Amino acid sequence: MKASFEELSSVQRRVTVEVPAADVDRTLDGLYKRLARQAKIRGFRPGKVPRSILEKYYAPQILAEAAEALISDNYTKALEETKLDPVAQPDFDFGLPAAGQDYTFTVTLDVKPEFELDPSLYKGLKLQEPKLEVTDQEIAKRLEALAERQAMLAPLDAPRPAQTGDVVIIDYQSSKGGQPVAGGAAENVEVELGKGNVPEEIEVALVRAEPGQEIKTTVHYGDEAGNPELKNQDVDFVIQVKDVKRKLAPEIDDDFARSISPEFETLAVLKDRIRNDLDEMFQDQRDVAVRNQIMEQIRELGQFDVPATLVSAEAKSMLEDFKTRLRRQGLDPAEAGLDDAKLLEDFKEQAQKKVRAGIVLGRISDQEKIDVTPEDVDKEIEKAASRMGQPAQIIKEMYMKNNMMPTLHARLLEEKTLQAIRADAIIEAVDPAQLASMTND
Q1: What is the DSSP letter of 119?
Q2: Residue 13 has pLDDT above 60, yes or no
Q3: Which of 146, 169, 180, 289 is 20 to 30 A from 311, comparing alpha carbons?
Q4: Which tops the pLDDT comparison, 338 or 276?
Q5: What value does the mean pLDDT of the chain take?
């Protein structure tokens, strides 16, 4: 086998692989011998079918299998010979082999960009994290939210129009330009007035509504619309008011705590759990804020081209995530009439930024000689085992069986690198609203 490559760009290579005729013939002979043991052709005993007859009936199939086998056997060897390390799924260009002739195929692949990165550019970054503190008021708010989840709906003491705090039971149908909106109808929907869980126009229309009443209103959707087909559009709603009820929340006491779970023997125990959970949640929020700022600041470090295949793969991943979010909102992406090609183009810029930041982070990992040890992997698997309530060995076997170890290794390497950058950074605690405002800007 002989392999050579040419540079198509700073991040793209075309590898040409030449397989000697002897290897081609050996592969074809093996495939035809295997076929001869299995083929059933009238007039010939099993295993006695001449090759010429087999070629007459099965040549296209055998040649396709031979091409697959020759590429599979020689592709990895070609990478070793050329010392190339592809960063994404390569593109193969090949034909069918012929007996007695050399076989040639080409592979176009993207590789890591090479660039210089001065450590002073990523050491001493100035970062901000939200100043978050668990207060008694916050704990009380969480307890009220828990109580609301256990609240029951009860009839009004006496008939009256709906008011803030009531729950209105409705059916609705939406339309745009006189045509029904896909997925835009529902029955027995509970709308709690004053919560802001539905568009403001609908909530305003339902205040003072009474059972049996039909209400019409128009909702204007802006750029924030979950369904892209409704962005900056007016949607008409016809609402049937079926009932008006009031919410009855339980008293927040020891009995309430025990109703949440037997492990909470008293309200004080439940409060301690909420405090611990909030501590963990706030730390996660601080970590995410710092992580996002690090990725934002390192993204433009270094001069290099971004591999197109990585950007394309990331954009496709973003598209699938977007569709998943729509499904969670009860919207069917197929019925929504999404234009996948347009969405992929829309995601392209964001995907390129994410890939670029990942490449810089990988270079920092190399320069700082950051690596993932077996102990790091075992520790992470133990955490996963604890979350899932399974023995660590079972989780480890699951990771190995499903080929999840490389992904786990990459995630741990990224986290260790981010921690190293954070350790050298100057971090200021600021008001969360201030940080959110700066992020939006």
Answers
A1: G
A2: yes
A3: 289
A4: 276
A5: 92
Q: Are residues 190 and 293 in the same domain?
A: no
d(CA 269, CA 271): 5
Q: Is residue 324 part of a domain?
A: no
pLDDT at 330: 83
In a domain, 392, yes or no: yes
Query: Do 208 and 297 lie in a common domain?
Result: no
CA atoms within 13 A on the CB side of 153: 10
Burial of 347 (C-beta count, 10 Å sphere; 0-12/13-18/19+)? buried
On the question of pLDDT at 74 being above 90, the answer is: yes
| Residue 198: DSSP 8-state | S
Helices (H), 240-266: 254-260
pTM over the 0.90 mark: no
Looking at the predicted structure, is the pLDDT value of residue 441 above 70?
no
Short-list 248, 243, 246, CA closest to 156: 246
Whether 424 and 275 share a structural domain: yes
Query: What dihedral angle (degrees, nearest 10) is formed by the CA atoms of 181, 187, 193, 199?
Result: -10
Q: Are residues 50 and 104 in the same domain?
A: yes
CB atoms within 10 A of CB 279: 13
Same domain? For 166 and 207 the reply is: yes
- Burial class of residue 314 (count of CB atoms within 10 Å of its CB; 0-12, 13-18, 19+): buried
Q: Give the pLDDT confidence of 170-214 residue by residue, as tens digits.
A: 999 999 989 999 889 999 999 999 988 899 999 999 999 999 999
CA dist., res. 101 & res. 303, Å (int): 45
325 domain residue, yes or no = no
For helices 405-423 and 374-388, the axis angle rounded to 10 degrees is 110
Read off the tokens for 438. Answer: 């700066």
- Total count of domains within the chain: 3
Please name the residues in contact with 408: beta carbons below 8 A apart, sequence gap of 6 or more.
377, 380, 381, 399
Q: Which of 85, 65, 72, 75 is nearest to 17 (CA)?
A: 75
- CATH code of the domain covering residue 105: 3.30.70.1050
* pLDDT surpassing 70 at residue 322: yes
309 part of a folded domain: no
pLDDT computed for residue 224 by the predictor: 81
- State which residues form the domain around 203: 153-248
The mean pLDDT of 118-134, rounded to a whole number, is 95
